[in-house]
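User: My advisor, Dr. K., asked me to get a structural model of this assembly before our group meeting. I'm new to this, so sorry if the format is off. These are the inputs:
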Amino acid sequence: MYEIRLHSRGGQGGVTAAKMLALAAIREGKFATACPFYGAERRGAPVVSYIRIDDAPIKVYSQIRQPDLVIVLDMSVMETVDVLQGIREDGRVLINSPHPVDMQGHPTYHVDLTGIALSLNLVIAGSPILNTPLMGALAKMGFVSFDSVKDAIEETFSDERNVAAAKLAYEGLGQ
Amino acid sequence: MLTIATGNKAVADAVKDARPEVVAAYPITPQTEIVEQIANYVASGELGSRYIPVESEHSAMAACIGASATGVRAFTATSSHGLVYMCEMLHWAVGARLPIVMANANRALGPGWNIWAEHTDSLSMRDTGWLQVYVGSVQEAYDATLMAFRIAEHTNVLLPVMVNLDGFALTHITQPLETVDPGDFIPPMELPHAIDITNPVGYGTLTPPGEYYKFRWDIERSMRSAAGVIEETQAEFGKRFGRRYGATEEYRCEDAEVIVVAMGTLGKEMEIAVDTLRSEGMKVGSMRIRWFRPFPDLDLEGREVVVIDRDYSFGFGGIVAHAISSKYDVSIYSVIAGLGGQEVTYDDIAGFVRDRRPGEEFWFGVDA
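Assistant: The format is fine. Below is the predicted structure of the whole assembly, which you can bring to the meeting.
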């Protein structure tokens, strides 16, 4: 089982990102679950979502303690949240950043999701849309194919700029 | 079609496929998405129900009672404080023999204010006469809701059914979901005592002592028949749609010397604990109780039993543990865990089994 923890802020689309990845994975015949941790979160507050992907049905409902991958959609949450807590020794990190950042030596991928969203004017209520470009980066990392990501995005959103954003992130992922 | 859905969405989809004529709704976390999604289906024309937004849960059930009494299919959903607020009407639905279906997102009761999973809300409605099923996955939430209509409306039952799913843990998790075309799986509802305006009669009149107990006995008679109707319905569902359910879900119980029992999502997660303990050489199995009313026959003879209660009856103990100990002569280690959404992992569950002390009660997080 592969376990992913996604850190974002309420309103940035982290919960929908988790759902889209789960959808892309099950379309490829895998099993997947996505769940947000619900507390007293509201727009702008740090939030956490979990995604599990496996070849067998998933029976776990408790939170992910030792993620294989940590995704940080908003680097500012790191001021108050220890995003690397419990990460596996060989765990990887994916950050929304135009440049590399050292995440305590963990293999770290970076992609400028905010820049991509702004370049396509993919903005809702003043916030750049980060979750659809994120799907492209995850495809590049090999979790699912780009075609599955494209399908999952199109099933979730009608604006075709979302797929374009995913394509840019697919091409722009750095390590 | 295979897609993904939350537990709430799965219930709403099952309601859409079961086509009730009336849905009365009042929102409450964490069930709100159910009635929101149903409202969307009604607004888009995908579901032709009359949707009645009401001013309280008491009214939601009262509206379902009024609708059902005219012989039409009715549905509502609630949770926690909403459920206990409609308590009076829950008894009424049973006494009036109305096959209403309701989803309850299991949530703790305040204060302290809490929106997370616990079973005390629905278990405190144990003696109302509602059938109660507790589900353990998004798929099961869909399947059980669909089956609930057929079971409730069966001529040998005619009692309401409550489908319980863990708040947030199941209502908000996204999992694969395969919906079905029910076809004639749920026959048209036929209520023998439906209100007929061309033939006026009195309902709910004073029922003297010499008559009242006969109605109570008839409820119990139907509750006893319900066990067979549930079995038949689940078998037919399996035959038509390929997914099989029992009154319980047993996992690696064949040669088990210790059986761990729970309901809801903990009852799924404990299967991982069973695998861990089996790999350590312990003969352990798990039994997830799905139907709590009518209470099923359990094969526990000669085993040690660990019961995890996500509920409590103050001054007495875990409600599931005591349901089992009052029916079966088995040694029980009663674990109270997961109250108000308390995090319980499969490792914790394995620990409960390893450190079991038969005959005792253990409060997770409190007792050492």
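One thing worth pointing out at the meeting: The mean pLDDT of chain A is 94.

User: Perfect, thanks a lot.
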